[in-house]
């Protein structure tokens, strides 16, 4: 189980470090175009994915923080219970690291720092961060694992 928690810790550290760099280098709303389809930006997300409930008046900070804490407890219990299911635990560890990275932002800043911004022409994907990426990859691995035959 320690290797999975270690991986979660690496995700948290990478997430917080990249957000720290963005907070130091960019003003809110600033864009740095790196390619025709990718910018580094600094946005603050007070909601959840795709800024869901971002303008809800503040209660969502406590709500999403509580969800992250409960999910983290459940994930740690699952990691303890199934340490030899490698794909399952890898997915859980990535989700845990992402959840804790974004939780830290919510608790300390009141919002989540997003900075990866992909676009094509007039089509834009909402900005996201390392924690969001880890959560998405982790969920994809959990879905993949759910289709595998269990021995």
UniProtKB/TrEMBL annotation:
What job does the chain carry out?
This protein specifically catalyzes the removal of signal peptides from prolipoproteins.
Species per Swiss-Prot/TrEMBL record: Methylobacillus flagellatus (strain ATCC 51484 / DSM 6875 / VKM B-1610 / KT)
Part of which pathway?
A: Protein modification; lipoprotein biosynthesis (signal peptide cleavage)
Q: Which residues form the active site?
A: 114, 132
Q: Write down the membrane topology.
A: Multi-pass membrane protein
PANTHER family named in the record: LIPOPROTEIN SIGNAL PEPTIDASE
Q: Name one GO molecular function term.
A: aspartic-type endopeptidase activity
Kindly list the residue ranges recorded as spanning the membrane: 62-79, 86-104, 124-144
For biological process, the GO terms are: proteolysis
Q: What is this protein called?
A: Lipoprotein signal peptidase
Q: Does the keyword tRNA-binding apply?
A: no
Chief subcellular site? membrane
- Localisation: Cell inner membrane
Q: What is the lineage of its organism?
A: Bacteria, Pseudomonadati, Pseudomonadota, Betaproteobacteria, Nitrosomonadales
Write one Pfam family the protein is assigned to.
Answer: Peptidase_A8
| EC class (word) | hydrolase
The record's Gene Ontology cellular component field reads: plasma membrane
Matches recorded under InterPro entries: Peptidase_A8 (IPR001872)
* Family named by the database record: Belongs to the peptidase A8 family.
Q: Which gene encodes it?
A: lspA
Spell out the reaction equation it catalyses: Release of signal peptides from bacterial membrane prolipoproteins. Hydrolyzes -Xaa-Yaa-Zaa-|-(S,diacylglyceryl)Cys-, in which Xaa is hydrophobic (preferably Leu), and Yaa (Ala or Ser) and Zaa (Gly or Ala) have small, neutral side chains
């Amino acid at each position: 189980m320690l290797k999975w928690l270690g991986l979660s810790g690496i995700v948290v550290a990478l997430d917080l470090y990249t957000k720290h760099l963005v907070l130091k280098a960019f003003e809110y709303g600033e864009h740095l175009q790196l390619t025709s389809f990718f910018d580094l930006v600094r946005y603050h997300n007070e909601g959840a994915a795709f800024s869901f409930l971002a303008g809800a008046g503040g209660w969502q900070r406590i709500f999403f923080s509580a969800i992250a804490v409960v999910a983290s407890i459940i994930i740690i219990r699952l990691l303890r219970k199934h340490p030899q299911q490698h794909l399952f635990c890898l997915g859980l560890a990535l989700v845990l690291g992402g959840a804790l990275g974004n939780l830290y932002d919510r608790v300390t800043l009141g919002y989540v720092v997003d900075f990866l911004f992909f676009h094509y022409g007039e089509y834009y994907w909402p900005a996201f961060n390392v924690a969001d990426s880890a959560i998405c990859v982790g969920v994809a691995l959990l879905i993949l694992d759910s289709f595998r035959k269990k021995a």
